[in-house]
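Hi support team,

I've been running sequence recovery on a batch of backbones for a student project. Most finish fine, but this one hangs at about 90% for roughly twenty minutes before it completes. I'm not sure whether the input is malformed or the queue is just slow. I've pasted the structure tokens below so you can try to reproduce it. Let me know if you need the job ID as well.

Thanks,
M.K.
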């Protein structure tokens, strides 16, 4: 049986914390170990609860999620941080991702998408909401000048994986959709990275868009 992921929720809105508490309680892959209402409280909350993943808002009254992310990772570099916010602009996402977060979700995500992202983060995966991912890719294409139209061909299964990455699915979600093991999906993604000389999911989607494999 897989390890249950310990989750700390940080959000200044009581209604959001209540909803997240319910989402976590409904899924046996995760357990809620603590809550905080502002980034100023987060390190003490982490010390008290020792979470695997911190699910954090960006806009908070005293210490924002970006600075709180830096503080969390200074406390424990192995802790994973997933931002959950109303913002869909790519520069907001870049702020918190550069601070060390490994996920960025918008608050209209479904409960399954949120919990999948938490589990994926704990496993070392990176998940970005499809709407934000599209903005990243479009901005990169607009700024990048001439597009590349050549790259080694992918297998049918690898093309399916690229399409599902573009839709924002985690490794676990891709494995479920294609009925393969998560280990197989990870190996295929590593092979795609090697073939296309890219390093992460956003770069995979960018290259696939340039090649016409996916359309955003």
């Amino acid at each position: 049986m897989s390890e249950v992921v310990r989750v700390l929720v940080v959000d200044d809105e009581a209604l959001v914390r209540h909803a997240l508490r319910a989402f976590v309680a409904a899924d046996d892959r995760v357990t809620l170990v603590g809550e905080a209402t502002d980034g100023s409280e987060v390190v003490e909350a982490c010390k008290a609860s020792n979470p695997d993943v911190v699910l954090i808002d960006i806009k908070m009254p005293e210490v924002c999620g970006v600075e709180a992310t830096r503080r969390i990772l200074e406390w424990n570099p192995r802790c994973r941080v997933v931002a959950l916010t109303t913002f869909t602009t790519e520069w907001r996402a870049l702020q918190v991702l550069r601070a060390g977060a490994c996920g960025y979700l918008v608050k209209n995500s479904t409960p399954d998408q949120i919990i999948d992202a938490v589990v994926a983060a704990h496993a070392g995966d990176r998940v970005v909401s499809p709407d934000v991912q599209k903005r990243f890719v479009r901005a990169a294409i607009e700024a990048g000048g001439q597009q590349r139209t050549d790259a080694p061909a992918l297998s049918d299964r690898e093309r399916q994986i690229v399409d599902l990455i573009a839709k924002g699915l985690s490794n676990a979600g891709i494995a479920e959709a294609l009925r393969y093991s998560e280990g197989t999906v990870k190996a295929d993604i590593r092979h795609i990275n090697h073939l296309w000389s890219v390093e992460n999911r956003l770069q995979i989607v960018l290259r696939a868009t340039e090649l016409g494999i996916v359309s955003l």
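--
Follow-up from support: It reproduced on our side and the slowdown came from queue contention, not your input. The longest strand covers residues 30-36. No action needed from you.
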